[in-house]
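Supplementary Methods. Inverse-folding protocol.

Structures were first reduced to a discrete structure-token string of length 164. This string, shown here, constituted the complete conditioning input.
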């Protein structure tokens, strides 16, 4: 399944829709303002919450937690020793590990696990500025999209830190 995601260019508190190939709004990424830490909710079109994505307050590496059904289902963090900083690790609650590699800032990367490619992102599929596509091969689409939001947020934090 392919989805269209808008690059988050604004601050926390901004929302954006993830659309399917037909242009239907299927998930809302709801940025929560006025929170102590970066928080997003991945919601369905009817308002149901599929996942909550939060930045972990205290950690050695920047980490985002993905929570669903009352518990943490994934942790996304930067690889500790990645000289090019184009790699992130995703630890799933069931013990699986995924890796996001590629150009994370430019949204051209691949998420892979032991079973193969989980998802691929690319700007090349779209001509609209500030959007990119994500093709999901994993059956848990909300989890994969939540991971992509976390990867994007951590990559954006790194980019801003490098600009300072």
């Amino acid at each position: 399944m392919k989805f269209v995601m808008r690059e988050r260019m604004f601050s926390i508190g901004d929302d954006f829709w993830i659309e399917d190939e037909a242009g239907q709004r299927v998930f809302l990424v709801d940025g929560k303002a006025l929170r102590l830490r970066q928080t997003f909710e991945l919601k369905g079109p009817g308002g149901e919450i599929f996942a909550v994505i939060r930045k972990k307050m205290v950690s050695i590496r920047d980490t985002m937690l993905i929570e669903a059904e009352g518990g943490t289902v994934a942790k996304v963090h930067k690889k500790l020793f990645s000289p090019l900083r184009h790699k992130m690790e995703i630890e799933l609650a069931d013990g699986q590990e995924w890796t996001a590699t590629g150009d994370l800032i430019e949204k051209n990367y691949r998420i892979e696990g032991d079973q193969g490619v989980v998802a691929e992102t690319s700007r090349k599929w779209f001509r609209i500025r500030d959007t990119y596509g994500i093709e999901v091969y994993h059956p848990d689409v909300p989890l994969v999209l939540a991971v992509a939001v976390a990867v994007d947020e951590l990559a954006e934090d790194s980019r801003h830190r490098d600009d300072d």
